[in-house]
Amino acid sequence: MAKLSARNQIELGRIDYIFETLAFFDNGNVLKNTGFGWKKAGKVKQGLTPLEAYNKSVEMVKDFEKNHPFFANYKKLLIKYGHSKRFLLHTMIKDEGADSDALYTESQDSLFSHARFNLSQGEAQELCQAYNLYMIENKQHKKSKNI
């Protein structure tokens, strides 16, 4: 398991993706956390400084989210309510068919304590609406690429 606070490295910044967080360091290391602790994801490609790689990644994420606003909103809500276990929350939403009542119930009494999110009914509804809009947006982008 990698440590964020390891000696001889300074964190340049973090980028939150839908299921993971990447942390960039001045020595070129890139760590990722998918909810099970930090692990080394790799190093910055040769020819790029660590700061350039981080800034390039930030810009790519911003551009993508600008063109996919419903995705960006869904991701923001997953991070807000799911924290580091957002992949589990997303799986619950998918498995429940974006049914907010089922998601609310599942979030309250999951058999696995690590997957208990204690969402309110309003939060569950907000997440399911955001997921449905993201799915519609995703289908529209796929259709426009196939034309």
Q: Could you give a short description of this structure?
A:
By secondary structure, this protein is α+β, with helices and mostly antiparallel strands. It has two domains: 55 residues, no CATH class; 79 residues, no CATH class.
Task: Describe the protein.
The protein folds into 2 domains: 11-65, no CATH class; 68-146, no CATH class. Helices cover 52% and strands 15% of the residues. The protein contains 5 helices and 4 strands; from the N terminus they run ββββααααα. Helix 2 (69-82) packs across helix 3, helix 2 (69-82) runs antiparallel to helix 5 (121-146) and helix 4 (100-108) packs across helix 5 (121-146).
SSE blueprint and pairings:
Layout: E1 11-16, E2 21-25, E3 29-33, E4 38-43, H1 50-67, H2 69-82, H3 86-95, H4 100-108, H5 121-146
Antiparallel strand pairs: 1-2, 2-3, 3-4
